[in-house]
Amino acid sequence: MPRIVSILLLCLLSLPAQARLTIEITGGVEGAQPIAVVPFGQVEGAQPGVDVASVIAADLARTGRFKPMPTREMLVTPHRAEEVDFREWELLATNNLVIGEISPAEGGGYRIDYSLLDVYGGKKLLGSSLRSSEKSLRLSAHRIADAIYEKLTGDPGVFSTRIAYVTSTGRGTSDERVSLRVADADGFNPQTIVDSPDPIMSPAWSPDGRKLAYVSFENRQSSIYVQELATGRRDKIASYPGINGSPAFSPDGSRMAMTLSKDGNPDVYVMNLGSRQLSRLTDHYAIDTEPAWSPDGGTIYFTSDRGGQPQVYRVSASGGAAERISFEGDYNAAAEVAPNGRALALVTRTAGRFRIAFDQIGGGARRLLSSGPLDESPSFAPNGSMVIYASQNNGRGVLAVTPIAGGSGQRLTQDAGEVREPAWSPFLR
Questions:
Q1: pTM, entire model
Q2: TolB N-terminal domain: from which residue to which, for each copy (predicted)?
């Protein structure tokens, strides 16, 4: 069932599972750059519990833009730039080389020194160090991968960001459990934010990445909550009679757009989070829902069936007349705005299949990013290079990631239950 229908009818949400997400690369990409990430050296006294080089290599491989060399094919394993003979790596036809060394840090933890080398140019492109605790070694590895990715592509990496998602086990039974979870972008370090026998839906990140808004059906009433990830403290933001759904933080975090039906039909409202004052943005006999902000905070995109079928509209965040902007196909919904503000990812129906589409705002050819049959809930990576969305695989709810430019994708599954409703975090501050 498409997301708009589930919101509007308040029907049962089958929301998804537990355990670490497992990532499967689905397809390949021609022209992936060969790169070697050499196992990092360990100075005496350093016994890290994480293979930092392996995490970096896996991060780069998942983008489809890089093809890391298997460790078994490396003829030598240097750890410092002065130990590198570039001719040896030219023979292995690798473009770039990542080397590093981990040593004990004064006062505890580790110091990680690393370098990115241009093999054919015979020079260092990047050299840096960072300090890490044992607990944060994976995060440190992701940050190194981010720096390498940005140096080689010009775009910020997203390996140190996180994803929120909803899981369910025991669907349709008296033992069903629904959880809102947060994990690293590679599926590791999952944390349960909320666990409940009642439906949970529509997770949305605050701009600073420190809070999540979501809808919970506790006590058989939909309510919007905002919860701090570090402390678990949560506030009930909206619990009016009828529908309380689709929370979306404004880019500056001071306001929240939402769908409420307290005055009749579902409409889009904006709440000042400081004063809790509400302003009604749309007022129509049709169903208006799924608001999404433009990056500058000046425009809100939303789904409405005021034309007879769900389509995407936009309206000034300060109010005014709404303008329809989707015209291709008889069903377009759940639009998310790209970080650059120039495109949308949305759910469209094509030949009876619900797929994720990529539309340039203001015109341009539509590109379909997924194949269906029931794809929904698109969310952009904060650098705009990829979209994560909910999909189906062998009848189970899974997550999928696809690059906007094409190439290899990823499927994220769990051993038990289902997983849905993904939301990619902003860059963490």
A1: 0.91
A2: 21-125
Considering the domain architecture, whether residues 316 and 171 belong to the same structural domain is answered as yes
> Do 182 and 216 form a contact (C-beta atoms < 8 A)?
no
**How big is the chain by its Cα radius of gyration, in Å?**
23
Q: Considering Cα of 176, then 181, then 186, then 189, what sign does the dihedral take?
A: negative
Domain span at 147: 21-153
Please check whether residues 216 and 278 belong to one and the same domain.
yes
CB atoms within 10 A of CB 189: 13
Which pLDDT score is estimated for 28? 58
Tell me how crowded residue 349 is: count the other CB atoms within 10 A of its CB. Answer: 18
As given in the structure block, the two tokens for residue 127 are: 């050299």
Report the C-alpha gap between 405 and 428 in whole angstroms. Answer: 24
By three-state DSSP, how is residue 325 classified? coil
Phi and psi, residue 202, nearest 5°:
60, 50
Q: Say which residues have a Cβ less than 8 Å from residue 382's Cβ, sequence separation at least 6.
A: 156, 158, 161, 339, 424, 425, 426, 427
Helices vs. strands in the chain: H and E counts, helices first: 4, 31
Q: How far is residue 142 from each of residues 57, 88, 185, 271, measured CA to CA in Å?
A: 10, 28, 9, 36
Tell which residue, 138, 133, 127, has the closest CA to residue 105: 133
**Whether the predicted pLDDT of 405 surpasses 90:** no
Instruction: Name 363's Cβ contacts closer than 8 Å, sequence gap at least 6.
Output: none
Q: What is the biggest distance separating any 2 CA atoms in the chain, rounded to whole angstroms?
A: 73
Q: Which amino acid is at 152?
A: L
Last residue of a domain, one of 136, 153, 170: 153
Six token digits for residue 256: 């929240």
User: What pLDDT score was predicted for residue 19?
Assistant: 67
Which segments of 10-110 does DSSP mark as H helices, in order? 52-62, 86-91
Residue 296 region by backbone torsions, left for phi larger than 0, else alpha for psi between -120 and 50, else beta = alpha
Q: Are residues 404 and 283 in the same domain?
A: yes
